[in-house]
Structures are given as structure tokens and as C-alpha cells.
Design brief:
alpha/beta, single chain, 44% helix, 6-stranded parallel sheet, TIM Barrel, 4-stranded mixed sheet
């Protein structure tokens, strides 16, 4: 395996792509406000309804549900309170991430129910696989944070899964982590464990966002009780909320990309408004996940031109509101093949050109999110590192301009033996972990390794080289004590 560049956040130095004019962006904004004021959004939580009604939202019973309608001025006021940037604190300070502006942060795949192991078998998620994905994420410097459970460890009972999974994440990695909003107590447990892992008091924890949670709107136009509970608990303690409508054009949103993005924007603004009603200035991100479905089968499609366009448009809206933007590197391929490569690249460039600040599912996503892949995580880490190198500012120093070196070589020479080259050959270009830049003869002599086989070997090598990050013994003991106590108390209630 080639040596990796150090852990660092890239910056998007060029202007993000704009896909519509400022006037047309205003039209989308105005259409979203019409949806919020004329149609409204169902909020399935009495406390949220009370809070929104208390600041001027109109609450009415429709179709046996409480629907909220928002005045445009109210939405614009509360959305305007959200911070344009903040720090996401890792377990160790060298893992802190700057979120917002032109900074990018890349995360792992998250929430896959299955994974393909290194022997090529597609299996249901388990703790062993989950832990190996954490180890791989820890060792890949292009991965900045863990997007929840890379694969769901379903061999852990749902009542205690969040406890053991968080314990694994805080002990096997030192990178920023995520909590699922699946009920109040899971959020409370997640925050307390993050606080313990960082070794800080409650006041410091609330002043330094250290945990994120995605809040998905149940599109179209609904936020359910567990998701809202996540906003109420996390925003109240100044932790990071990522409002992400799940708008698939033709299924849960209008079939046109413009209509789907109008709905995405309305749902996002409604959720962001609630975060700022709960605690003005609490950290929140604008999440975009609009894609289309295959109208022949109804299956979600990712890595499509429509997805890339929606990514760029979502970023344009997030910048309009001066809120950090979340997007994803996704594909619908079942195998690590050409489809996986080109869909991921189109997704990746859609997000980067859209000015993404926080890329969930950045490494390892396959099959429309139905399985995680070790090989794909390694390949995606390569892609992310290549993007980071490409985004790095160009060195225009006198030494880099190399006029003296050009003079020494002169016409018809070569630069292989030139001291200017020799002094830099190891760091001149990014050397990928997976790509095989050999000629046909040497590639054939090596057994004609293909990308998947090379990625498999790299993944095995990285896992073999894994080193557990330092963690104070007292902190690890306190984490274990907390988990054991909560398990003894029964964890959280479940239906099964």
C-alpha cells in the first residue's frame, strides 16, 4: 500500500457551480415558501407543535394530523439565526472538523443493512463487520468522520445496539461520530457517551458540538415523532442536526427535478426553523438527497445526471441561506464494476461542484445503500484523496515555476535525472492505493490484477496494520461502565 497524505480537510478554492440564475433561485425559494404557507407540513410531535405555535406558526387538524403552516417572514427570520460555520469536535482535537465556508469533510458509508465481506460474501450486518469498517475508517486519512454505523450490527438487540455501537466507535476510532434519532433516550445516551469519550464536562460539551444526527423528513411534507425528538434533544444541547429530506423524484416528490427540489427546500426550511426555535444559533446543516427512481421498477437510482444536478442546486440553495451543506457520494451498482465507478464519480462531482461541506456516505456505499463494501471504501478513499489533491492550491513559488531547472535541461533533454525532479519525486504527485499504473507487460507479469482484487488486498493490508487510537484508561472504563449500567437498566424500549 502506498503512503497516504496526512489527515487534513480540503478546501474548495474555485467557485461552486451555479445551475440556475439568482432570479430563478429566488423563484424556487418563493415556491418553497408557498408550499410551507399554503400546504404546510405535518409535525407528529405535540411539544414541537406547541413550540412552533408559540412563535406564530398556524396549527390545524387535517386528515387526523396536526399540520403546521409557516408565514414566510417567520421562516426567513429563524433560518437566518442558523450559524454559517462551526467546529465539529472529534474525540481528539486533531480530528476537529471545520464545517462551512469552503471546507469539505468526507465520511464513511452509513446505515447499510448488509455488507460484502473480504471473501466476497454478501451477509447481514453484524458487529464484527461493523467493527472492521470502523478500523478501516480510522486508518484511511481521506475519511474525516464516521457516518453512523457503516453497516447495521443487527446481531446486537435493538434495545442496546446504540450503546454497544457507540462504545465501539469511541474506542476503535478517534474521529467524529454520529447518533441516530430513533427516540429520546437513544439521543441522550449518544450525547452522554460522546461527552465521556471527549473527557469534558457538560458545559464544555454544550459549547463544543461533538455529535451529529441526520433528521430525515418522511417525504412528502412530514416529520415523524422520533426524528423530531432528535431535533428537540440535540439542538437543545447545541449538537449538530443535519436536516435531510428524502425526496426521490417520481416517488416521494414531484417527477420534475425542479419540483422535487422545491419540496426538498420546503422540508429543509421547516426542519431548520424548528432547530432555531429550540435553540437559536444551534448548529444545523442543509441536507440534499434528491434523486430519481427507475420508473420501470420503482427502485431508487443514484449517480444519475438528475442526482448531480440536484446536488448542485441544493448547494446553491444552502449558500443562499448561508448554512453548511450536506450531500452524498452514492451509486446503485450491485458490484464493484464500471457502473459503480462512473455513478460514484458523477455523484462525487455533483456534490463537490455543489459546494458540499459535509459528505455523508463518502466511502463504501453500494447497491443504493443496501450494502457496504470494504473494497469500495478503499477505492472511494482513493477518489476522495484525488479530489483533495486536485482542490489543493497550485504552488506558484519561484522554485515551483522551475525556470532554472528548465534552463539546466535545455532543449531536447529530459527531467528524470534533474535534481529539481529528484528532490521531489516522492511527493510530486499523489500515488493512489488502488490504481495500477504499469505497462501491459509488467501488469501481465504481476498476474493482471484488477481494481477489485487490488482493493481487496489493500483493505486486508490496512486492517492488518490497524492501530487502536490512544484513549485514557479511565475514560474507556467510564464508557464501559455507562454502557453496562444502561444495559442493566434495559436499554431502550422496543417493539420486539
Amino acid at each position: 500500500m502506498n503512503e497516504q497524505p496526512p489527515f487534513s480537510q480540503p478546501r474548495l478554492l474555485a467557485a461552486p457551480t451555479t445551475v440556475v440564475s439568482a432570479e430563478d433561485l429566488d423563484r424556487i425559494h418563493a415556491a418553497s415558501l408557498r408550499v410551507l404557507s399554503e400546504v404546510g407540513v405535518d409535525f407528529l410531535h405535540p411539544e414541537a407543535l406547541s413550540m412552533l405555535g408559540g412563535v406564530g406558526a398556524k396549527i390545524g387538524l387535517e386528515e387526523h394530523r396536526e399540520r403546521v403552516r409557516f408565514d414566510p417572514e417567520m421562516v426567513e427570520h429563524y433560518v437566518g439565526l442558523a450559524p454559517s460555520s462551526f467546529t465539529f469536535h472529534g474525540r481528539d482535537k486533531h480530528r476537529d472538523l471545520k464545517i462551512g465556508g469552503n471546507r469539505l469533510a468526507f465520511g464513511t458509508v452509513g446505515s447499510a443493512p448488509n455488507y460484502v465481506n473480504l471473501d466476497g460474501e454478501r451477509v447481514s450486518g453484524d458487529r464484527r463487520g461493523y467493527q472492521d469498517f470502523l478500523r478501516l475508517a480510522q486508518m484511511l486519512n481521506a475519511v474525516h468522520f464516521v457516518s453512523g454505523y457503516p453497516v447495521e450490527p443487527i446481531d446486537l438487540h435493538p434495545s442496546i445496539r446504540h450503546l454497544e455501537a457507540a462504545y465501539d466507535a469511541h474506542t476503535l476510532t478517534d474521529k467524529a461520530f454520529h447518533v441516530y434519532s430513533l427516540g429520546k433516550q437513544r439521543n441522550l445516551d449518544g450525547m452522554e457517551m460522546a461527552r465521556i469519550a471527549r473527557g469534558v464536562d457538560r458545559e464544555t460539551f454544550e459549547s463544543q458540538p461533538s455529535l451529529s444526527s441526520v433528521i430525515n423528513a418522511s417525504s412528502p411534507l412530514r416529520f415523524d415523532h422520533p426524528m423530531i425528538e432528535g431535533i428537540l434533544q440535540m439542538s437543545a444541547r447545541n449538537q449538530i442536526i443535519i436536516i435531510t429530506p428524502f425526496t426521490l423524484a417520481g416517488a416521494m416528490a414531484p417527477v420534475t427535478i425542479a419540483g422535487a427540489v422545491v419540496q426538498q427546500n420546503a422540508e429543509a426550511l421547516a426542519g431548520i426553523t424548528l432547530t432555531q426555535v429550540v435553540r437559536p444559533g444551534s448548529p444545523v446543516m442543509y441536507g440534499g438527497f434528491t434523486s430519481n427512481v427507475d420508473m420501470r421498477s420503482g427502485s431508487p437510482a443514484f449517480g444519475t445526471p438528475e442526482y448531480a444536478k440536484a446536488c448542485m442546486l441544493g448547494g446553491q440553495l444552502a449558500r443562499r441561506y448561508a448554512i453548511p451543506y450536506r450531500s452524498s457520494n452514492v451509486n446503485a451498482a450491485n458490484a464493484i464494476d464500471t457502473q459503480a465507478g462512473y455513478e460514484s464519480m458523477l455523484s462525487l462531482w455533483g456534490t463537490v461542484q455543489g459546494g458540499v461541506n459535509f459528505m455523508l456516505h463518502g466511502a463504501g456505499w453500494m447497491e443504493g445503500g443496501l450494502h457496504a463494501s470494504f473494497e469500495k471504501m478503499v477505492i472511494d478513499a482513493d477518489l476522495l484523496q484525488m479530489v483533495s489533491v486536485m482542490l489543493a492550491p497550485l504552488d506558484l513559488s519561484e522554485d515551483a515555476l522551475a525556470v532554472d531547472a528548465i534552463a539546466r535541461v535545455g532543449p531536447a533533454g529530459h527531467f528524470f535525472g534533474e535534481p529539481h525532479t529528484q528532490a521531489r519525486y516522492r511527493s510530486a504527485f499523489y500515488s493512489p492505493m488502488v490504481s495500477d499504473w504499469r505497462n501491459w507487460e509488467s501488469w501481465t507479469e504481476a498476474g493482471q490484477p484488477e481494481a477489485k482484487a487490488k482493493a481487496n488486498a489493500v483493505a486486508r493490508e490496512v486492517l492488518e496494520a490497524y492501530e487502536k487510537p490512544p484513549l485514557d484508561d479511565a475514560i474507556e472504563a467510564e464508557l464501559r461502565e455507562y454502557v453496562d449500567r444502561r444495559i442493566a437498566e434495559g436499554g431502550v424500549e422496543t417493539d420486539y
